[in-house]
Design brief:
This protein is of the alpha+beta class and about 220 residues long. About 55% of the residues lie in helices and about 20% in strands. The protein folds into two domains: about 1-85, Helix Hairpins, CATH 1.10.287; about 90-215, Heat Shock Protein 90 (2-Layer Sandwich). A hairpin with a 4-residue loop joins strand 6 and strand 7.
Length: about 220
């Protein structure tokens, strides 16, 4: 058991650090765009002071861009807050869809850099689970990272949360290259430690191109 917790602690720090660094990068990108548009406003002010007429549509465009970036920053910060608060309690009742939303939003930047689309499918109904939210987010991320390596020619990983036979299930599909992936490295000790901590199970179907996480409801 202590060996498992050693793995969990190491993985948790790496996961939290990687996601925090990614969030920081996104915020810096937002600030860079806002700063660039603030510079444009200063240029327009200088033009006005020199008697050069300013097109109101240009000012409107700058204003709209700043507003767009503020909204983007708000979305990033709200997702960051949800992610940070997932460490508040060891075990709590959570919506599986909400947890999947958090991880998908965190992973979108990594997917975009690889020209991969993450497509979260709507659930047929609410799926509630009692688990450690942070460990589950970590597990989803590790599976999603592997799924992106195994993505098919459509370059889309499809994610779905659903309830089946009194258990909750997260499925990653559209993994056309799963059949040629080195499965001796997956799930691996880190995934297995997280599965043990949340009493979950994992199924890899190379023919169907899916990875499924099963969790007790």
């Amino acid at each position: 058991m202590s060996y498992q917790w050693d793995i969990l602690g190491e993985e948790a720090l790496q996961f939290f650090g990687k996601m925090s660094a990614s969030i920081s990068h996104e915020i810096k990108n937002v600030l860079a765009v806002v700063n660039e548009n603030a510079g444009l406003i200063q240029d327009y002010i200088s033009m006005h002071e020199r008697g050069i007429p300013i097109d109101p549509e240009q000012l409107k465009s700058v204003s709209q861009m700043i507003t767009k970036q503020v909204r983007r920053a708000d979305t990033i910060m709200r997702n960051m807050s949800k992610f940070a608060h997932s460490t508040d309690q060891l075990v709590k009742m959570e919506s599986l869809d909400d947890i999947l939303d958090v991880v998908t939003n965190l992973a979108n930047r990594f997917a975009t850099m690889r020209e991969i689309t993450l497509e979260k499918m709507p659930s047929e109904g609410p799926v509630k689970i009692k688990a450690n939210p942070f460990f589950l987010e970590n597990l989803i991320w590790l599976c999603l990272e592997f799924a992106m390596d195994a993505v098919g020619p459509e370059k889309t990983v499809r994610l779905l949360a659903k309830e089946i036979d009194n258990s909750a299930q997260i499925t990653f599909s559209q993994l056309g290259n799963l059949v040629v992936m080195p499965l001796e490295t997956f799930p691996g000790k880190r995934v297995e430690a997280l599965l043990s901590a949340i009493q979950g199970d994992i199924t890899v179907d190379t023919q169907a191109g899916t990875i499924s996480i099963s969790l007790p409801v």
